[in-house]
TrEMBL record:
Annotated gene: hisG
Protein name: ATP phosphoribosyltransferase
Residue ranges of every copy of the Histidine biosynthesis HisG C-terminal domain listed in the record: 214-286
Record has Transport as a keyword: no
Family membership: Belongs to the ATP phosphoribosyltransferase family. Long subfamily.
Control of this protein's activity: Feedback inhibited by histidine.
Enzyme class at the top of the EC tree: transferase
GO CC, any one term: cytoplasm
SUPFAM superfamilies cross-referenced by the UniProt entry: GlnB-like, Periplasmic binding protein-like II
Substrates-to-products reaction catalysed: 1-(5-phospho-beta-D-ribosyl)-ATP + diphosphate = 5-phospho-alpha-D-ribose 1-diphosphate + ATP
Length: 289
Protein backbone atom coordinates (compact mmCIF):
# COMPACT_ATOMS: atom_id res chain seq x y z
CA UNK A 1 0.00 0.00 0.00
CA UNK A 2 1.50 3.44 -0.91
CA UNK A 3 2.41 5.62 2.08
CA UNK A 4 0.13 8.62 2.77
CA UNK A 5 1.99 11.80 1.72
CA UNK A 6 2.91 14.32 4.39
CA UNK A 7 0.08 16.81 5.09
CA UNK A 8 -0.22 20.10 3.21
CA UNK A 9 0.84 22.82 5.66
CA UNK A 10 -1.54 25.77 5.34
CA UNK A 11 -0.52 29.05 7.00
CA UNK A 12 -3.38 31.30 8.12
CA UNK A 13 -3.39 34.52 10.11
CA UNK A 14 -3.42 33.78 13.86
CA UNK A 15 -5.74 36.68 14.63
CA UNK A 16 -7.00 39.62 12.62
CA UNK A 17 -9.09 40.44 9.61
CA UNK A 18 -8.25 37.37 7.50
CA UNK A 19 -8.75 34.64 10.11
CA UNK A 20 -12.53 34.13 10.17
CA UNK A 21 -13.03 34.10 6.40
CA UNK A 22 -9.98 31.86 5.89
CA UNK A 23 -11.32 29.25 8.32
CA UNK A 24 -14.87 29.60 6.94
CA UNK A 25 -13.58 28.97 3.41
CA UNK A 26 -11.72 25.82 4.48
CA UNK A 27 -14.84 24.67 6.32
CA UNK A 28 -16.97 25.19 3.21
CA UNK A 29 -14.44 23.02 1.39
CA UNK A 30 -15.32 20.23 3.84
CA UNK A 31 -12.10 20.63 5.84
CA UNK A 32 -12.70 20.57 9.58
CA UNK A 33 -10.04 22.12 11.80
CA UNK A 34 -9.93 22.26 15.57
CA UNK A 35 -9.81 25.83 16.77
CA UNK A 36 -6.11 26.35 17.14
CA UNK A 37 -5.96 29.73 18.85
CA UNK A 38 -3.72 28.35 21.56
CA UNK A 39 -2.55 25.31 19.69
CA UNK A 40 -0.88 27.21 16.78
CA UNK A 41 -0.75 23.99 14.73
CA UNK A 42 -3.93 22.01 14.15
CA UNK A 43 -4.52 18.96 11.96
CA UNK A 44 -7.49 18.85 9.60
CA UNK A 45 -9.79 16.01 10.56
CA UNK A 46 -10.87 14.80 7.12
CA UNK A 47 -8.31 16.16 4.66
CA UNK A 48 -4.56 15.60 4.47
CA UNK A 49 -3.58 19.05 5.75
CA UNK A 50 -2.60 20.91 8.87
CA UNK A 51 -3.16 24.56 9.69
CA UNK A 52 -0.39 26.76 11.08
CA UNK A 53 -1.65 29.88 12.87
CA UNK A 54 0.97 32.59 12.27
CA UNK A 55 1.45 36.35 12.38
CA UNK A 56 0.24 37.80 9.09
CA UNK A 57 3.46 39.65 8.38
CA UNK A 58 5.57 36.50 8.96
CA UNK A 59 3.64 34.31 6.50
CA UNK A 60 5.50 35.33 3.28
CA UNK A 61 8.84 34.35 4.84
CA UNK A 62 7.47 30.96 5.97
CA UNK A 63 6.15 30.35 2.47
CA UNK A 64 9.46 31.28 0.83
CA UNK A 65 11.37 29.00 3.22
CA UNK A 66 8.96 26.10 2.68
CA UNK A 67 8.03 25.96 6.39
CA UNK A 68 4.47 26.42 5.13
CA UNK A 69 3.48 24.93 1.76
CA UNK A 70 0.75 27.50 1.15
CA UNK A 71 -0.71 30.51 2.93
CA UNK A 72 -3.92 32.50 2.90
CA UNK A 73 -2.68 36.06 2.79
CA UNK A 74 -3.42 39.54 1.45
CA UNK A 75 -1.63 40.23 -1.85
CA UNK A 76 -0.52 43.54 -0.31
CA UNK A 77 1.53 41.70 2.36
CA UNK A 78 3.02 39.37 -0.21
CA UNK A 79 4.14 42.31 -2.37
CA UNK A 80 5.41 44.32 0.58
CA UNK A 81 7.55 41.51 1.97
CA UNK A 82 9.14 40.85 -1.46
CA UNK A 83 9.38 37.10 -0.83
CA UNK A 84 9.28 34.30 -3.37
CA UNK A 85 5.74 32.86 -3.58
CA UNK A 86 3.33 31.89 -6.34
CA UNK A 87 -0.18 33.38 -6.30
CA UNK A 88 -2.29 30.31 -7.05
CA UNK A 89 -5.81 31.65 -6.61
CA UNK A 90 -7.57 34.92 -5.73
CA UNK A 91 -10.17 34.39 -3.03
CA UNK A 92 -12.45 37.40 -3.40
CA UNK A 93 -12.45 38.58 0.23
CA UNK A 94 -10.50 41.21 2.22
CA UNK A 95 -10.55 43.51 -0.78
CA UNK A 96 -8.70 46.75 -0.15
CA UNK A 97 -6.23 49.11 -1.78
CA UNK A 98 -2.94 50.67 -0.72
CA UNK A 99 -3.37 54.39 -1.21
CA UNK A 100 -1.72 57.74 -0.67
CA UNK A 101 -3.73 60.30 1.27
CA UNK A 102 -3.22 63.88 2.41
CA UNK A 103 -5.07 66.16 4.84
CA UNK A 104 -8.38 67.28 3.30
CA UNK A 105 -7.96 70.54 1.41
CA UNK A 106 -4.24 70.04 0.71
CA UNK A 107 -3.26 71.22 -2.77
CA UNK A 108 -2.51 68.01 -4.72
CA UNK A 109 -2.26 68.00 -8.48
CA UNK A 110 -0.70 64.58 -8.99
CA UNK A 111 1.99 62.60 -7.19
CA UNK A 112 4.59 65.33 -7.87
CA UNK A 113 3.00 67.11 -4.90
CA UNK A 114 4.77 64.55 -2.67
CA UNK A 115 8.29 65.73 -3.63
CA UNK A 116 10.19 66.63 -0.47
CA UNK A 117 7.28 65.55 1.78
CA UNK A 118 7.28 63.17 4.75
CA UNK A 119 5.03 60.13 4.22
CA UNK A 120 4.05 57.80 7.09
CA UNK A 121 3.38 54.15 6.23
CA UNK A 122 3.51 50.51 7.35
CA UNK A 123 4.31 49.59 3.72
CA UNK A 124 7.78 51.12 3.13
CA UNK A 125 8.84 48.76 0.33
CA UNK A 126 5.67 49.18 -1.72
CA UNK A 127 5.80 52.95 -1.22
CA UNK A 128 9.51 53.17 -2.06
CA UNK A 129 8.94 51.22 -5.29
CA UNK A 130 6.04 53.46 -6.29
CA UNK A 131 7.92 56.71 -5.58
CA UNK A 132 10.98 55.47 -7.47
CA UNK A 133 8.86 54.59 -10.51
CA UNK A 134 7.34 58.09 -10.44
CA UNK A 135 10.74 59.78 -9.88
CA UNK A 136 9.70 61.32 -6.57
CA UNK A 137 12.05 62.04 -3.66
CA UNK A 138 10.20 61.85 -0.37
CA UNK A 139 11.02 60.89 3.20
CA UNK A 140 9.43 57.59 4.24
CA UNK A 141 8.50 57.41 7.90
CA UNK A 142 7.81 53.79 8.86
CA UNK A 143 5.27 53.15 11.63
CA UNK A 144 3.55 49.88 12.41
CA UNK A 145 -0.06 51.01 12.90
CA UNK A 146 -2.54 53.88 13.40
CA UNK A 147 -0.95 55.46 10.34
CA UNK A 148 -3.90 57.79 9.70
CA UNK A 149 -3.11 59.76 12.84
CA UNK A 150 0.37 60.78 11.61
CA UNK A 151 -0.52 64.08 9.84
CA UNK A 152 -2.67 65.17 12.82
CA UNK A 153 0.22 64.87 15.25
CA UNK A 154 2.76 66.52 12.98
CA UNK A 155 4.60 63.30 12.17
CA UNK A 156 4.06 63.42 8.42
CA UNK A 157 2.56 65.46 5.56
CA UNK A 158 0.90 62.47 3.90
CA UNK A 159 0.21 58.81 4.54
CA UNK A 160 0.25 55.55 2.59
CA UNK A 161 -2.07 52.91 4.07
CA UNK A 162 -4.80 50.40 3.32
CA UNK A 163 -8.23 51.75 2.45
CA UNK A 164 -11.45 49.84 2.09
CA UNK A 165 -14.59 51.87 2.84
CA UNK A 166 -12.59 55.10 3.29
CA UNK A 167 -14.16 55.73 6.69
CA UNK A 168 -10.85 55.75 8.61
CA UNK A 169 -9.46 58.36 6.21
CA UNK A 170 -12.64 60.43 6.54
CA UNK A 171 -12.68 60.31 10.34
CA UNK A 172 -9.09 61.51 10.42
CA UNK A 173 -9.66 64.40 8.04
CA UNK A 174 -7.74 62.79 5.17
CA UNK A 175 -8.43 62.56 1.47
CA UNK A 176 -7.42 59.65 -0.80
CA UNK A 177 -5.21 60.85 -3.65
CA UNK A 178 -3.55 57.97 -5.51
CA UNK A 179 -3.87 54.18 -5.47
CA UNK A 180 -0.55 52.28 -5.33
CA UNK A 181 -2.00 48.78 -5.57
CA UNK A 182 -5.21 46.79 -5.20
CA UNK A 183 -5.36 43.71 -3.04
CA UNK A 184 -7.50 40.78 -1.94
CA UNK A 185 -6.87 37.55 -0.05
CA UNK A 186 -5.07 34.89 -2.10
CA UNK A 187 -3.69 31.38 -1.82
CA UNK A 188 0.08 31.68 -2.20
CA UNK A 189 2.29 28.61 -2.65
CA UNK A 190 5.89 27.95 -1.69
CA UNK A 191 8.56 27.54 -4.39
CA UNK A 192 9.67 24.52 -2.31
CA UNK A 193 6.35 22.64 -2.35
CA UNK A 194 6.94 18.98 -3.32
CA UNK A 195 4.93 17.01 -5.89
CA UNK A 196 2.89 15.05 -3.35
CA UNK A 197 1.78 18.21 -1.55
CA UNK A 198 1.19 19.97 -4.88
CA UNK A 199 -1.34 17.20 -5.62
CA UNK A 200 -3.13 17.93 -2.31
CA UNK A 201 -3.05 21.65 -3.18
CA UNK A 202 -4.67 20.90 -6.57
CA UNK A 203 -7.48 19.10 -4.75
CA UNK A 204 -7.94 22.05 -2.40
CA UNK A 205 -7.94 24.56 -5.27
CA UNK A 206 -10.63 22.52 -7.05
CA UNK A 207 -12.82 22.63 -3.93
CA UNK A 208 -12.25 26.36 -3.36
CA UNK A 209 -13.18 27.15 -6.98
CA UNK A 210 -16.43 25.22 -6.52
CA UNK A 211 -17.23 27.15 -3.33
CA UNK A 212 -16.39 30.54 -4.87
CA UNK A 213 -18.37 29.82 -8.05
CA UNK A 214 -21.43 28.91 -5.98
CA UNK A 215 -21.20 32.07 -3.83
CA UNK A 216 -21.98 34.27 -6.84
CA UNK A 217 -24.92 32.21 -8.06
CA UNK A 218 -28.51 31.47 -7.06
CA UNK A 219 -30.69 28.52 -8.03
CA UNK A 220 -34.05 29.85 -9.18
CA UNK A 221 -37.33 27.91 -9.61
CA UNK A 222 -40.57 29.36 -10.95
CA UNK A 223 -43.97 28.37 -12.31
CA UNK A 224 -44.67 29.43 -15.87
CA UNK A 225 -47.81 29.03 -18.06
CA UNK A 226 -46.87 26.73 -20.95
CA UNK A 227 -47.62 29.38 -23.58
CA UNK A 228 -44.98 31.66 -21.98
CA UNK A 229 -42.13 29.15 -21.65
CA UNK A 230 -40.28 30.28 -24.73
CA UNK A 231 -40.35 33.93 -23.70
CA UNK A 232 -39.22 33.06 -20.15
CA UNK A 233 -36.42 30.69 -21.15
CA UNK A 234 -35.10 33.28 -23.61
CA UNK A 235 -34.40 35.50 -20.59
CA UNK A 236 -32.60 32.80 -18.64
CA UNK A 237 -29.00 31.69 -18.54
CA UNK A 238 -28.24 28.21 -17.14
CA UNK A 239 -25.28 25.89 -16.69
CA UNK A 240 -26.38 24.33 -20.01
CA UNK A 241 -29.93 25.52 -20.53
CA UNK A 242 -32.89 25.96 -18.19
CA UNK A 243 -34.70 22.79 -16.99
CA UNK A 244 -38.43 22.65 -17.81
CA UNK A 245 -40.65 20.13 -15.96
CA UNK A 246 -44.45 19.70 -16.19
CA UNK A 247 -46.49 20.68 -13.11
CA UNK A 248 -49.36 18.49 -11.82
CA UNK A 249 -51.71 21.29 -12.87
CA UNK A 250 -52.33 21.15 -16.63
CA UNK A 251 -51.01 24.08 -18.69
CA UNK A 252 -48.20 24.97 -16.28
CA UNK A 253 -44.50 24.06 -16.01
CA UNK A 254 -41.76 24.46 -13.43
CA UNK A 255 -38.65 26.17 -14.83
CA UNK A 256 -35.29 25.85 -13.00
CA UNK A 257 -32.06 27.71 -13.67
CA UNK A 258 -28.93 29.30 -12.17
CA UNK A 259 -28.57 33.09 -12.13
CA UNK A 260 -25.52 35.23 -11.31
CA UNK A 261 -26.00 37.45 -8.25
CA UNK A 262 -25.23 40.71 -10.09
CA UNK A 263 -27.82 40.08 -12.87
CA UNK A 264 -30.37 38.71 -10.46
CA UNK A 265 -32.82 41.60 -9.79
CA UNK A 266 -32.82 42.72 -13.37
CA UNK A 267 -33.77 39.22 -14.59
CA UNK A 268 -36.33 38.62 -11.82
CA UNK A 269 -38.23 41.81 -12.73
CA UNK A 270 -38.35 40.79 -16.39
CA UNK A 271 -39.47 37.23 -15.50
CA UNK A 272 -42.41 38.54 -13.46
CA UNK A 273 -43.40 40.84 -16.29
CA UNK A 274 -43.36 37.85 -18.66
CA UNK A 275 -45.76 35.80 -16.47
CA UNK A 276 -43.53 33.75 -14.15
CA UNK A 277 -45.09 33.12 -10.72
CA UNK A 278 -44.09 31.57 -7.38
CA UNK A 279 -40.43 32.38 -7.93
CA UNK A 280 -38.14 30.65 -5.38
CA UNK A 281 -34.49 31.64 -4.96
CA UNK A 282 -32.19 29.11 -3.28
CA UNK A 283 -28.51 29.48 -2.31
CA UNK A 284 -26.11 27.00 -3.93
CA UNK A 285 -23.65 25.25 -1.59
CA UNK A 286 -21.14 24.09 -4.22
CA UNK A 287 -20.91 24.39 -7.97
CA UNK A 288 -18.70 21.94 -9.83
CA UNK A 289 -17.56 23.78 -12.93
N1 LIG B 1 -9.94 47.77 5.99
C1 LIG B 1 -9.70 46.65 5.35
N2 LIG B 1 -10.62 46.12 4.52
C2 LIG B 1 -10.37 44.96 3.86
N3 LIG B 1 -9.23 44.26 4.00
C3 LIG B 1 -8.31 44.74 4.81
C4 LIG B 1 -8.48 45.95 5.53
N4 LIG B 1 -7.38 46.17 6.29
C5 LIG B 1 -6.57 45.14 6.05
N5 LIG B 1 -7.10 44.28 5.16
C6 LIG B 1 -6.50 43.04 4.64
O1 LIG B 1 -6.37 42.12 5.72
C7 LIG B 1 -4.99 41.80 5.94
C8 LIG B 1 -4.76 41.61 7.43
O2 LIG B 1 -5.02 42.80 8.10
P1 LIG B 1 -4.90 42.88 9.71
O3 LIG B 1 -5.22 44.26 10.08
O4 LIG B 1 -5.67 41.79 10.33
O5 LIG B 1 -3.39 42.53 9.97
P2 LIG B 1 -2.16 43.52 9.98
O6 LIG B 1 -2.31 44.39 11.16
O7 LIG B 1 -2.07 44.18 8.65
O8 LIG B 1 -0.97 42.49 10.05
P3 LIG B 1 0.07 42.08 11.19
O9 LIG B 1 -0.51 40.84 11.83
O10 LIG B 1 1.29 41.76 10.40
O11 LIG B 1 0.25 43.23 12.13
C9 LIG B 1 -4.24 42.96 5.31
O12 LIG B 1 -2.93 42.58 4.94
C10 LIG B 1 -5.09 43.27 4.10
O13 LIG B 1 -4.84 42.36 3.06
O1 LIG C 1 -11.16 52.26 4.72
P1 LIG C 1 -11.56 51.57 5.98
O2 LIG C 1 -12.72 50.65 5.76
O3 LIG C 1 -11.79 52.52 7.10
O4 LIG C 1 -10.37 50.60 6.41
C1 LIG C 1 -9.04 51.07 6.49
C2 LIG C 1 -8.41 50.77 7.79
O5 LIG C 1 -8.42 49.36 8.04
C3 LIG C 1 -7.10 48.93 8.37
O6 LIG C 1 -6.86 49.07 9.72
P2 LIG C 1 -7.34 47.97 10.80
O7 LIG C 1 -8.76 48.23 11.18
O8 LIG C 1 -7.04 46.62 10.27
O9 LIG C 1 -6.47 48.30 12.06
P3 LIG C 1 -4.92 47.98 12.36
O10 LIG C 1 -4.17 49.22 11.98
O11 LIG C 1 -4.91 47.72 13.82
O12 LIG C 1 -4.50 46.79 11.55
C4 LIG C 1 -6.21 49.91 7.61
O13 LIG C 1 -4.91 49.95 8.15
C5 LIG C 1 -6.95 51.21 7.76
O14 LIG C 1 -6.61 51.88 8.93
MG1 LIG D 1 -4.94 46.15 9.81
Amino acid sequence: MPATPAPLRIAVQKSGRLLDESIELLKECGIKIDNGRDQLKAPARNFNAEVLYLRNSDIPQYIQDGVADIGIIGENTLIEKEKDAEVVLKLGFSKCRLSLATPRGTKYEGVQALNGQRIATSYPNSLRGFLKKKGIEAEIHEISGSVEIAPNIGLADAICDLVSTGSTLFKNGLEEQDIILKSEAVIAASPKIDDARRAILDQLVFRIKSVLAARNQKYVLMNVPNDRIQEVTALLPGMRSPTVLPLAEAGWSSVHTVITEDRFWDIIDRLRATGAEGILVVPIAKMIV
